[in-house]
């Protein structure tokens, strides 16, 4: 489905180029492609899985290693069905759906309006865009679906396929996938594939607090799959039906939640900038319509080729989740705070903690990183009449998250150079993800590594056999540095260490 508010040439072309690049160079493949694929489901290839795992590991260590009061869990995908009644997902996890009667295409009604607002903003009408979003927020808060349809009509929003405004009524669509919880269908209770990872943290709140001896304020982090039956899943891996979340729920004393909300809001934005996402391509977007559990919410948005979209949400969830689980399970979800309240001179005592959530879409972060890294530049080579220009494409990935840290190239496939390259490979492979390539001219090998974002290429030549030095080529600048083999481990290790990112936080 095309986006009616996109600038139709540059942005669409750029995304198509990135999608094609991701497939050709082993980052992302359509799932089950030999059977013509499955809508909005994707597989990560050899380079993609390395990049995604590096991003996940970077997030995990930033949370659990840099913060002594954050620990992790790995909760099950299947949970007791009452979990989703307590959380509100069974009754209220819906998106407003609308169909165009001429094209037979289905859309999220709120997204149609948001895209119209984005069009106003792109045209310099920021106030008009803001007013439209505020109006939409009020309608959704009041569950006024008739009003949402009228808003679509008033704004003259048409189907991008048929070009008509022949719309059905807006109706709610529950996004959870359900299945049977028993091998015997007649005995099976309906259970759900989790639509978020947060509830696995909430139902384990006391288990974690007691076993890890945690004291409020503290956080629980988790990385895991979630599933949503999206009405319209599109824009490559931005919106999928099976996706991965990186969430941290931070439990705080009631009354301190807004202080922690502001702190985590700034902390998380700094993390994205340290990863290499430019500040100019990041922005905060406060929610006009708050979820039923929240008293404050903001998105960190990244400017994709298709516009600013959410990559992370920070929410002040109040005590909604723990209180709901306490009421439905009949088991107390309280924490005893022995610290002295300066106002009363007595311990704070028992209370249900408030929660501040940070939630990153791992797939969206992957896409933002890929889009930001995808670089096309024009090179000028030679002088005078021999001067010529050529296009160069490479992935300008931070070395710490690059799928491959270094590639080792023997200059020729003889004279003992492959054997020497193999020796260097064997010395470094326990420390880094590296490869060795012998085929093709060395220029082609450099180009191939540029296209997958490898930060360093190490050339082994005849001089190497004489003095134990190699030439290290740098991806971004294409500059070459001669150095001893003995210094490679430290040189590469310093560049690809997560410490380079953590130092900026």
From TrEMBL:
Function in brief: Catalyzes the attachment of glycine to tRNA(Gly).
Residues that hold ATP according to the record: 228-230, 238-243, 310-311, 361-364
GO molecular function annotation: ATP binding; bis(5'-nucleosyl)-tetraphosphatase (asymmetrical) activity; glycine-tRNA ligase activity
Organism: Hymenobacter oligotrophus
Binding site for substrate: 108, 196, 243-247, 357-361
Enzyme class, spelled out: ligase
Keywords: Aminoacyl-tRNA synthetase, ATP-binding, Cytoplasm, Ligase, Nucleotide-binding, Protein biosynthesis
Catalysed transformations (reactions): tRNA(Gly) + glycine + ATP = glycyl-tRNA(Gly) + AMP + diphosphate
Family statement drawn from the similarity comment of this UniProt entry: Belongs to the class-II aminoacyl-tRNA synthetase family.
GO biological process, one term: diadenosine tetraphosphate biosynthetic process
HAMAP family, alphabetized: Gly_tRNA_synth_B
EC number, UniProt record: 6.1.1.14
Domain Aminoacyl-transfer RNA synthetases class-II family profile: 17-403
GO cellular component terms given for this protein: cytoplasm; extracellular exosome; microvesicle
Lineage of the species this protein comes from: Bacteria, Pseudomonadati, Bacteroidota, Cytophagia, Cytophagales
Broad class of where this protein is predominantly found: cytoplasm
Subcellular location, record wording: Cytoplasm
Record note on quaternary structure: Homodimer.
SUPFAM superfamilies: Class II aaRS ABD-related (SSF52954), Class II aaRS and biotin synthetases (SSF55681)
Cited CDD domains: GlyRS-like_core
Gene3D superfamilies according to UniProt: Anticodon-binding domain, Bira Bifunctional Protein, Domain 2
Name of protein: Glycine--tRNA ligase
């Amino acid at each position: 489905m095309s986006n009616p508010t996109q600038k139709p040439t540059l942005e669409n072309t750029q995304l198509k180029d990135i999608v094609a690049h991701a497939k050709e160079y082993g980052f992302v493949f359509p799932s089950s492609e030999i059977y013509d694929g499955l809508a909005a489901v994707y597989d990560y290839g050899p380079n993609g899985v390395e990049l995604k795992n590096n991003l996940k590991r970077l997030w995990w260590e930033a949370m659990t290693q840099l913060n002594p009061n954050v620990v992790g869990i790995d909760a099950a995908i299947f949970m007791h069905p009452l979990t989703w009644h307590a959380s509100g997902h069974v009754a209220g996890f819906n998106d407003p759906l609308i169909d165009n009667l001429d094209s037979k295409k289905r859309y999220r009604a709120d997204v149609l309006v948001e895209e119209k607002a984005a069009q106003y903003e792109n045209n310099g009408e920021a106030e008009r865009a803001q007013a439209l979003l505020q109006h939409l927020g009020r309608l959704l808060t009041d569950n006024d679906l008739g009003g949402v349809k009228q808003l679509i009509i008033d704004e003259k929003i048409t189907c991008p396929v048929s070009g008509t405004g022949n719309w059905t009524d807006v109706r709610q669509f529950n996004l959870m996938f359900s299945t049977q919880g028993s091998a015997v269908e007649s005995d099976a209770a309906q259970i759900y594939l989790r639509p978020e990872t947060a509830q696995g943290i909430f139902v384990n709140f006391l288990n974690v607090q007691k076993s890890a001896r945690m004291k409020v304020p503290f956080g629980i982090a988790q990385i895991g799959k979630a599933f949503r039956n999206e009405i319209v899943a599109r824009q490559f891996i931005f919106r999928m039906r099976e996706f991965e979340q990186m969430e941290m729920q931070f439990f705080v004393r009631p009354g301190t939640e807004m202080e922690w909300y502001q702190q985590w809001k700034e902390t998380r934005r700094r993390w994205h900038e340290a990863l290499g996402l430019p500040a100019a391509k990041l922005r905060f977007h406060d929610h006009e319509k708050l979820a039923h559990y929240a008293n404050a919410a903001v998105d960190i948005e990244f400017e994709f080729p298709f516009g600013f979209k959410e990559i992370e949400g920070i929410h002040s969830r109040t005590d909604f989740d723990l209180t709901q689980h306490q009421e439905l399970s009949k088991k107390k979800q309280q924490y005893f705070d022995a610290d002295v309240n300066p106002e009363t001179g007595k311990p704070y005592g028992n209370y249900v903690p408030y929660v501040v959530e940070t939630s990153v879409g791992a797939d969206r972060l992957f896409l933002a990183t890929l889009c930001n890294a995808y670089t096309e530049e024009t090179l000028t080579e030679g002088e005078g009449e021999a001067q010529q220009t050529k296009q160069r494409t490479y992935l300008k990935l931070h070395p710490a998250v690059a799928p491959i840290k270094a590639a080792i190239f023997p200059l020729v496939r003889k004279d003992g150079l492959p054997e020497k390259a193999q020796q260097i490979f064997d010395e470094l492979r326990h420390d880094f993800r590296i490869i060795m390539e012998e085929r093709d001219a060395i220029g082609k090998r450099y180009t191939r590594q540029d296209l997958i974002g490898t930060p360093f290429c190490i050339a082994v030549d005849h001089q190497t056999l004489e003095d134990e030095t190699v030439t290290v080529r740098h991806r971004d600048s294409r500059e070459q540095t001669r150095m001893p083999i003995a210094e490679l481990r430290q040189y590469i290790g310093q560049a690809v260490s997560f410490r380079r990112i953590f130092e900026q936080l």
